[in-house]
Amino acid sequence: MMKSLMILAAAALAVAWASPSGAADVKIGYSIAKTGLFAPAAPSQINAYNLWAEQVNARGGLNIGGKEKRKIKLVQYDDQSSPGNAVRIYEKLITQDKVDLLLSPWGTPHHFAIASVVERHKFPMIGSTASSVQLRSMKPGNIWFTTAAIPDKLAAAMVGLLKNAGVKTVAILTNQLPFGQENKKFLMPALKAADIKVVVDSDYPPNIKDMTAILAKVKAARPDAILALAYPGDSILYMNKARELGLKAKFQYVMVGPAIGFWRGMFKNAASGIVTLGHWSPHGENARAQAFYAAYLEKFKEEPDYLDSVEAWVSTEILEQAVAKAGLDKDKLRKVISTSNFDTIIGRVQFDGVQNAVTPTGFLQIQDGNIHIVWPKSRATAKWQAKPGWK
Amino acid sequence: MSLNFSRDALPLLLVAVGALCLPLLGNDYYLGVGFTLFGWVALAQSWTLVSGLAGYISLGHVVFAGIGGYLLVLTWGAVPIWLGAIVGAVGAGLFALLVGLPVMRVRGPYFVILTFGLAEFAKYVVINIESVLGKFSRLLLGGPALQDLYWVMAALALVGTFSVVVVRRLRLGAGLIAIREDETAAGTLGVPTMRFKLIAFALSALLPGLVGAMFVLRTGYFEPLQAFDPIISFTIVTMAIIGGSEDARGPVLGAIFLVLLSELLWSNFPQVYMVILGVLLIGFVLFAPNGVSGLLDRLASRSLQRPGVGLV
Predict the structure, then answer these.
(1) Domain membership flag for residue B88
(2) Taking the mean position of all CA atoms in its chain, how far away is CA A281?
(3) 3-state secondary structure of A68
(4) Cα–Cα distance between B30 and B23 in angstroms, integer?
(5) Which residue of A77, A243, A388, B266 pairs with B273 in a disulfide if CB–CB is 3.0 to 4.6 A?
(6) Residue A112 and residue B274: Cβ atoms within 8 Å?
(7) What is d(CA B278, CA B284) in angstroms, rounded to the nearest whole number?
(8) Number of domains in chain B
(9) Does residue B98 lie within any of the structural domains?
(10) Which residues of B touch A78 (CB under 8 A)?
């Protein structure tokens, strides 16, 4: 018995040694909030990265400039939700771990914080889960942003959708975190220009525990639309209280939250009719989108996050296609990313400066448990419907 | 004025030699670690001025760093960066004087809770101001390079360490220690307790004001929830406990120990380092209650009988 085990072990070793050493793995590094304030948001992105690496490796590895294929090895660190830590981690990834490529961290603050690091080391990185008009003030060349959900464009698109839905009055509830504030800043003048009256305008702190007072005010004002510029935590608070009070507005927008799988599981039918931020749906014609959706669902037994998983996935698609063309040379990569067209699950993407110049800003709506693009009309997979009540 | 080697010269030497040697390793990663380390040393030393010497444990020290960072952001573009940082420090000091008047009348656990609450309060005031100003986080583009920030931070750590060494030798320091031992008795003996406490509180706010400004410059990004993160306050206290003494040595040893340990752990065990760190900290409190300083003293005297120097 012992002897056969020894032989087996020796054989295994021999195989291990003999296996085509060929090219070494491609090291791809990133940091993400595994602990701290943003930790609940990170899995959507980590899952997308892991799925991508797994699929690429199953295909034989990452195509490097059409010359060879090398397996991907992801190098991940926890930034504890702190942008300062993310800065140190990306410095370490670049100068110490000497990774070949970078993926982006979670969240706008982290993207902004590491922008100066990738700029200084001239190390191109494709961003994902970040959005702010401020990103346009960044120097293009080493960082790009895939999102179409930039607040000024969102405001214009939202007014289009509201008018289309025949909305005349709105209540705006705004989380004081940066993204909420920025959206409100652009929404207010856009609403005014479109003659839509704001009947309630209320800001609340990020860690709000009770929305009764605010929502009672909303109920009394009877607006056509409620725009809850919320984050995942308070979006749940909004849903529970709005259902309890039976808010009847036909248009209810919950900014961030409903795109996450567990969120819809929590509210089931009550979530029907909720409009949310996003510009991707698997229900369209895009074959890449359908394949991604099916693979994600199979591996993780839950739907992808229609915002974060999607943005993260798009960034990997762009990276993969750019590396296939340019190889690992930073200068060539930078050039290819800046000038090429990329085929992704949100359709064709091309960058103008740091931002995605193609994907139109859109909105999603939950209809019978599915999420559809309802705006803009050119990309809609379903028509907007009035919220059917809370059931 | 004589210097005790282990208590005074050692921490000063550690900071100075460390500051000169780290850049020799020659890459950004080590400079970044050094920047962080010296930031913590400066914060922990300034905390020691009031909490170590006078025994008023502050759990809201981050408020001064937050204010320093915020003032730098508000003056960004209007005045040179160095002036903005100084405005931050002075602002933090004035804030300490202002709130010190009522806050410093409270002792023990009430003081701990009050400082914590005050920091949270300041955080939400800033969030509201930003909201009224229509600002949604601030991006500061074109700040100084890491090399420059590193040298400033190393200097702050040195100044912080030096200030603890000096203050301990002044009448102020003796008075603060008397306050820690028995405030009523100290008052009776003629120590101007309120004045000393206020001075210590204001002094302890200056350096964090500068450190906060450096932190903002390092990331080029300001957002109140991050700048006023209470974890920063907790970390300062943790470093003091690990350092384990109320002289200039404790904060230096505590900061070095915690920064290097967590750096080694997260870079080598990125998935479980928090667990390991937690276990190590618990072990430390259980088996080395007097911190790194206590261990050093024990090693130096080679006697287990000698009582270590507690934190408070």
Answers:
(1) yes
(2) 13
(3) strand
(4) 7
(5) B266
(6) no
(7) 10
(8) 1
(9) yes
(10) 266, 270-271, 273-274
Domain contains B305: no
Closest C-alpha to A28, from A50, A4, A5: A50
The model carries a pTM of: 0.86
Q: How far is CA A30 from CA A95, A125, B195, in A?
A: 13, 10, 51
User: For the segment A22-80, what is each residue's pLDDT rounded down to a tens digit?
Assistant: 578 999 999 999 887 788 889 999 999 999 999 999 999 999 999 999 999 999 999 98
- Does a structural domain hold residue B155? yes
Distance from CA of B15 to the nearest CA of A (A): 21
Domain range spanning residue B204? 5-229
Average of per-residue pLDDT values in chain B = 88
Yes or no, beta carbons of A83 and B270 under 8 Å apart: no
Is A63 strand, coil or helix? strand
Q: In chain B, which residues have their Cβ closer than 8 Å to the Cβ of A154?
A: none
Q: What confidence tens digit (pLDDT) does each residue in B247-278 have?
A: 888 899 999 988 988 888 877 777 777 788 88
**Distance to chain A for B129, nearest Cα, Å:** 11
Identify the three-state secondary structure at position B137: coil
ipTM summary value: 0.81
**CATH assignment of A151-277+362-379, given 3.30.365.10, 1.20.1250.20, 3.40.50.2300, 3.40.50.10230?**
3.40.50.2300
Comparing CB atoms, the residue among B127, B221, B225 nearest residue A113 is: B221
For A230-250, the pLDDT digits (tens) are 988 899 999 999 999 999 999
Domains A26-148+285-356 and A151-277+362-379 share a fold: yes
| B136: contact with A, CB 8 A cutoff | yes
Superfamily name and number for A26-148+285-356: Response regulator (3.40.50.2300)
B82 shares contact with chain A (CB less than 8 Å): no
Domain limits of chain A?
Answer: 26-148+285-356, 151-277+362-379
Q: What is the pLDDT of residues B204-237, one digit of tens each?
A: 999 999 999 999 999 888 989 889 999 899 999 8
